[in-house]
Amino acid sequence: MHFVRLVSLAMTVIVIAASLSHIDCANHTPKDRLVESGVAAMEEGDMEAAVRALKAATDLINLDTPDSNDTYIFVNLGTALGEIGQAALSAAQYRKAIDVDGENVDAHYFLGLTLQDMGRNREAADTYAVAASLDRMHWESMSNLGAVLLDLTDYSGSVAAFSEAIGTLEQREVEPTNAPYDPFPILSQLYYRRGMALSGGSSGGNRGGVCVVQAQSDDPGGKDVDCGEMAKFSFSKAVSYDEGNEAAKHMLAALTADATMKRASNSYVKGLFDEYAGNFEHSLVVDLGYKGFQLLRNFVGEVLGEENLKFGLVVDAGCGTGLIGNEFRGVSRTLVGMDLSKKIIDEAKIKRPGLYDRTYVGDIVEGIRAEGGKIDLVIAADSFIYFGDLGALFESIRDGLRRGGYVAFTLEDVGMEDARILDSERPDWRWKLTPSGRFAHRKGYIEDVLKASGFVLVGYGAMENFRYENGVGVMGHMLVARKV
């Protein structure tokens, strides 16, 4: 999660332009003229020309006696290099700026952004921390520090950083550095991220637990507090600042156990996967130990017989980066990938070129139905978990499948203790929105939906530990059904 990089870019250009504006043109040195040329190129968006001019200007800097403008020559050269995809060279220029002036906040901040883009989050966190220590009103550094600490699963550090950024923007005594024109959308995002940190990241692992956080205005004693309650407060504040923050609404519903929510909104799911597209597969497979796609492929072979796995049109519903699609490529004449997130589909094309014969970006309910009874097999590994009510989904699958076509999919189940409580308190429960923001379903409800939608269940299998959340294995269902 990056904040206002373009605003900061414009600011660094203005700093140099303003510092040069008082100089008599007749007294401009060759370095001054190169800097002016580079600044003008940046303002026009010609980063290649900016790099050439600013690089030439840096060659004229006397590092033994640098002047106040020299720091920003390196900063702007770093920014221009970053804009043309030269991250390593960009970082090197920011480091040179820091060598000239170790207290330059912009140099540290931009270096942090670059390191974050490069996936070097620990170094980025250290760099953001330096920038924030140099300017306590630099809310952008604290915001990004919170983001990288959240990625590093340093939840308490992330909470503290987000809280400081929030406090900086909400206070009225001192103007924040680079104060946003409209702080409400930014505050909404900051509260949402703080809620995620309090919830133990995307897993919601701290729900109902007790944690110790740095004393804030709403906790003057610095005592033990309920992270779940603080997370609810943060998500609620996020929605109050921006009623269109669907992610915050979704997580608030999850933490309040809202049994009326029937599915995650398209905007929530799209935003979730757009944001994490680049790191999605690594996080899922490596960090969370996800193996549902492999389990489902093996299960389909067992149920239908490997010798019978020859399909014409196969739709990978909620395809992500193509994990399950790759498992079925060899038995599919035509493989179609469908997902709400264009960014995740683009990532699939990068990771697995040529995997899909065609792709569809949009709601899978609409996309499947649009195939008009031509599909032989619908596969979905860990993608139907964003639906609570499965009725409309399986009606669309019925309409999209040919007669005798199959659907093979996975869903989450609740743990044994949760099942016992739900069976006792809500005997008719069908699904549960979990603190992770995903839906878990009751086996009997899934079977009822399949029957009502015109399917016969061909095979069922329980999954144990098909993914881990905070070191705890997640339970799940595997099902294969045939359209009658």
What would you call the shape? Answer: elongated
Uncertain segments of ≥5 residues (pLDDT<50)? 1-19, 202-210, 214-223
Number of strands: 13
* CA distance, first residue to last residue: 47 Å
CATH superfamily descriptor of the largest domain: Vaccinia Virus protein VP39
Secondary structure category: alpha/beta
Number of helices: 21
Percent range for β-strand residues = 5-15%
CATH topology of the largest domain: Rossmann fold
**CATH architecture heading of the largest domain:** 3-Layer(aba) Sandwich
The percent of residues in helical segments reads 40-55%
Q: Which class of the largest domain in CATH terms?
A: Alpha Beta
Summarize the structure.
Residues 1-17 form the signal peptide. The protein is of the alpha/beta class. The protein has helices at 5-21, 30-44, 47-58, 68-83, 87-100, 105-117, 121-134, 139-151, 155-170, 183-198, 227-241, 246-255, 266-276, 280-287, 292-304, 323-328, 342-351, 364-369, 391-400, 416-425, 443-452; strands spanning 210-211, 225-226, 311-317, 332-339, 358-361, 375-380, 401-412, 431-433, 439-441, 455-463, 468-469, 472-473, 476-483.
Task: Please give a structural write-up.
It contains 21 helices and 13 strands. The chain is an alpha/beta fold. The protein folds into 2 domains: 1-134, Serine Threonine Protein Phosphatase 5, Tetratricopeptide repeat, CATH 1.25.40.10; 274-483, Vaccinia Virus protein VP39 (Rossmann fold), CATH 3.40.50.150. The strands form 4 sheets. The protein has a 7-stranded mixed sheet with strand order 5-4-3-6-7-13-10, sandwiched between helices. It has a two-stranded antiparallel ribbon with strand order 1-2. Helix 1 (5-21) runs antiparallel to helix 4. The longest helix is centred in the first third of the chain and has 17 residues, at 5-21. The protein is elongated and about 85 Å long. Residues 1-19, 202-210 and 214-223 have low confidence and may be disordered. Residues 314-405 form the Methyltransferase domain. One of its GO terms (molecular function) is methyltransferase activity. Pfam families: Methyltransf_25.
